[in-house]
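hi support,

uploading two proteins for the ticket. first:
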Amino acid sequence: MKFLLIFLFAISVRGADIVADSFSWVDVSNAIDSASSGDTVIVPEGIVHWVGGIEVHKPITIRSANATERTHIFFESFAFKTQSTNATIKLSGFVFTPTNGQSSAAVYVAGIGTNCFWLSSCRWSNTLNWCVFVASALNGINGVGPYGLIDDSEFTYTGACFGSIFVYANEGSLSWQTPEHWGTISNVVIERSQFIAASLNASAPAADSHLGGRGIFRHNTLSNITVGSHGPEGASSSGTNSTREWEYYKNDFYFSTAALPQVSNPRGGTGWVYSNTVTSVGTVEYGSIYNLGVYCGAAGVCDANGCINCASSTNYPAAYPISQQIGRGFNGVAETNTPWRFWENTFPASATGPIACAPGSAFGVDGREWTNQPPSDFRQLAFPHPLVGSTPNVPRPPVVNLRRVTL
């Protein structure tokens, strides 16, 4: 009897499996509507065109039917929008491709708290806008998060696009009123994924952020793709906020072209960049590996003398420091100097950096806005992410033998 009770309890925690009648938008929507918290909605494999998207507001798993054949969704406005508070909505095993040059993101994530989402074993291809858009607004409320995991996925660039993952308003203005979240699940964590472009795509970073975004980008492979973040550009008394913090570590960057901008291009806030490897097929001059200058936007430019025109913009003060600029953080009481840290990274011999717009810029000084020294309070989030636990994800198989639907 004791064994039976434990067994039944385990079943109740796991939830029920609900198989959608087909991969059509109507059948998948109906299956999701019928699901309860903890249930798994299983979508048959195949290729389908969704004119509309599906919104998910309860902690369930939505996955393709099996590991060898994926559900390939050609979407228009979006495929999924998820919203959750401190409970996980998981999407797994899908391929997302926009139709007719559609520029919307495939997946929008919103919510409040930690472990709000888990996007796993998915593929994004030909997306013209952000593949995944993470924002904090939940029913119009700006709160803490959402934080969650994107792992074991693939992002393929075949043309112009904005980038892969945009962490936007992760807490918003609240992010600049709390200390750093180094090494915690209170971040958007991106791990064990691939970002692939046939040629250099400098304007489309693998991960980007603005308005208080926080993230951890680790154990990923990037081909002709960089990472970056937005700063206080465009900021004004209305309260626009810079990126808050990033951790980039144990990533492999590979470049097959000679023209290479910054491998990481942070424009604001603070971060740790360590144990990354950059390789190239040829001997190239990489220029500045880290662009630590204040991005002036339309109101100013960075040149050999630094960001000389920032003072002419009504959006920026004339003197250092600019609020939320590169190398700034929050100690629990007030904004304070918190330098970007770069250590134990491996680059080609021809690489140079880090520099700040230009050496000696008043807004990016070695030892103040950035340093090559690790932090005294170093910590690291357990790997893999706690959502994964001890059960590894199924490896990404090729997409084969798909049934096609003609709409």
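and the second one:
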Amino acid sequence: MKSTANRIDATSTDSMIRLARSLIRAMDQRRFVMLRSSIGIVFLWFGLLKFFPGLSPAESLASRTLSALTFNQIPESAEIVVLATWECLVGALFISGRFPRVAFSLFWLHMAGTALPILFFPFELFSHFPYAPTLEGQYVLKNMVMASAAFSIRRRWRNASDARVASRTDEPASRRHIGTFTTDPCPMSG
């Protein structure tokens, strides 16, 4: 009896280990897609919040920053709608994996804009400058993680794209570096 129970336990353990290894392999193969999608979800979510006044904790900071950039020439409500649309577009592009050049251009412009409060309102971002960020300060600082993740994704896509172009020398120059994250046969798409 005891040997049968030990074999069942050993078989169960081996099965669990094989399952865990399979899951780890699958996640490893799709890590960049998961990272890209995560960035897209955050952008889409934060963008959607800005369409509903008072829901986004960063709305006030974003509004003041945009007003400073536009010298108060554009109504605050219009600025927030443009920002919300921008963030939703970035999110949708990252989630879909389509038009990576557009997605990254919009993303990096957004990152530059979200870094400006550090210059414009540094003492509003920290309760004790420079080591204790407020909620708004944390919002700005989380963008450092987003930027690092996006840089990693972009670099991976670019390297894969360069490898594909190098292997197809007969491809017209106008088609080089064009593709998507999800449908191209590259390491990015898992």
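thanks. also noticed: Strands lie at 126-128, 132-133.
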